[in-house]
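User: Here's a chain of 643 residues. Predict its fold as tokens.
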Amino acid sequence: MLESLLNNRLLKLRNRHFLFFDCIFLLISPLLALVLRLDGKVDFSLYLIPIFWSTLVFLFIDIVVYYKLGLYNRDWTNASIDELAKLIYIIFWAVIVQTGVFILLNSFSILGFEVLPLSLPLLTGIITFFFVAGARFSIRLIERINEKRKISYHGERVLIVGSGKAGSSIIQEMQRNPQLGLNPVAFVDDDIEKKGLKIRGIPVLGTRHSLPEIIAKMNINKVIIAMPTAPGSEIRDIVSICRKSGVQARTIPGIYEILDDKVRIDSIRNVQIEDLLRREPVKTDIKKVEDFLQGKKVLVTGSGGSIGSELCRQIIKCHPSEIILLGQGENSIFDIQHEILKRLSVTNGKAYKTNVQTVIANIRSYKRLDRIIAETQPDVIFHAAAHKHVPMMEVNSCEAISNNIKGTQNLIELSLKHNVEHFVFISTDKAVNPSSIMGASKRVAEMIVLNAGRTYGKNYSAVRFGNVLGSRGSVVLTFKRQISEGGPVTITHPDIQRFFMTIPEAVQLVLQASVIGNGGEIFVLDMGKPIKIIDLAKDIIRLSGYEVDKDIKIVQTGLRSGEKLYEELFIAGEIYEKTLHEKILIASNASHFIPENFEYNLETLINKRHENDKELIVSMLKRLVPEYVTGDEKSIPSDLQVS
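Assistant: Prediction complete.
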């Protein structure tokens, strides 16, 4: 009872209480330092007056320094290594000032300081540090003792894979919140030097290869993968081991999803297909992107879409003065506006103010766009709005031309008219050697952007990448829907392959590419190795808790109109150079591949689009995109020039 009351009192200590205790400590420390210095043989007839005055001088100096350097505006209930470092820094400067004043008074024999040992300020500072630090960190010590007492040993027995910062953070939250019913009992880590160590009292028992034995021996109920930077191959290996051992595997998001570098207990989720396809993270120059966007007005078309909305999420972290959310669907724009405002209320603080403006508009309307750009005066435009569904655009060819080509032309013409300095067009691998109307329309849109950049010397460029996981119309979402309906899962061809990356990763690289070039270039993102769609389907079925062909069957339906077996990222003849970023290539000569009579043929195509004559549209597209070949299967070209 008494112990509990004392603990509660200590946990309620605030800075005003610490000031009182500090004064007591500071009145005691000089005398203790003198006693230690003289091995307890203190002649008070000689030292009483000097030690009295030195105590008052040191007390005054310490309190002033502590206040000036912020010792009394910190929260010590959550003290960490940062607070300890700050405390050392403050007391260091207090000792420096004390020593200077002490030497001055000693030299001029003022107040009897000449009889005191020169080491007194240093010894006083050391003793004061232990007193001051001990009082403050006793709160954390008591809190930790209480956490250990509260730990429930009756909850799920949890094993953490990865004993780094993320794993340690997850363990800390489990220990602080026993009501979660999660009892951490062990770590595994591939760093063999960590075996046998304890982290927050939890032992590291081995590597992931010893998971089956540890799961059985420790009676593990749940495995949590705390490795945000691990590639998909490692996640796949761990999930497979857990499945065979009969335990549930969960994970924290990958590094591209937790860009704020904060891992919380509510970050833990079921393993998703994005985790199995995760690649090793690459370093990005966030500072350069932030310097580029900070204080600017940024307009994002297609803001309600999967790529556009993620662009908005990452752009606001760079503190633009204004972000304009432009889209056609009012519900999706409302949703992203609500999310952005919520994020800004948490992250912006007092130092930055980002105005959020929403615009419902169709990029095909030239007059509407003209008024919007004239009123908002954006410095940067990210153009993500597009029709992307290949089979649908085959039967609605006029819409592909109106939206993907005419919409892009409108934006480029108005960007030039209103002197927009930077324009970034989000392209696709389907624009390379296209076999579909959608792909060909995106290739023409690339040319419009590149032609403007080259002709007018503007920083207008395109970024080309493959499929993103989880986007609207994504095969992943289709597979999940089919599984929820009991199957079957349909694929068009057993050999069909696609490039994939996560939405946050793609957008991060888009932003990185936006600060690299000078205009008139195409940036190509390194998509890694292509993935067989049939393997993707099998992984999603297993992650959903089913067995392939036993619970959920896979059925082949045949290639659809405009669909290729393989997607490509490079056009023959374009010279791809490495950039400062290892995952971004640049086609510096991309704007040279604009055919003769481009503008004439472009206007003809746009004028004929309303007739919705597919044969005429295909014929006109082939004039603009000579490499456009209709057909189901194409091989990957090998004559690429990469320097």
